[in-house]
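lol forgot to send this yesterday, sorry. struct tokens for the thing we talked abt
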């Protein structure tokens, strides 16, 4: 049964009821949207289901794109993401 159920798109190091996520698979990238809808900052080590190697963090408010430190594992990428209260980030894995 476990083999038939895929791993989650996003796995967090600890539960966070205020963190909202969305994942879309594009032709050449996996795109993840993270929104902290809480009044407290959010910091997580997270595992993203993706075969990509290069990870970018996009700030939709400023348009800034920065490379992220990431480690690759079989079918996944691990990153650290910090969000201020009510902040949004887009993570692109290519």
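and heres what i got for the seq, position by position
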């Amino acid at each position: 049964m476990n083999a038939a159920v895929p791993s989650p798109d996003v796995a967090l190091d600890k539960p966070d009821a205020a963190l909202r996520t969305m994942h879309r698979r594009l032709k050449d990238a996996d795109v993840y949207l993270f929104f902290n809808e809480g009044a407290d900052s959010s910091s997580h080590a997270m595992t993203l289901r993706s075969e990509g190697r290069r990870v970018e963090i996009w700030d939709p408010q400023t348009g800034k794109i920065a490379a992220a430190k990431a480690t690759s594992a079989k079918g996944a990428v691990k990153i650290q993401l910090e969000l201020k209260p009510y902040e949004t980030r887009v993570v692109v894995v290519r």
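The chain has a mean pLDDT of 94. anyway ping me if u want another try
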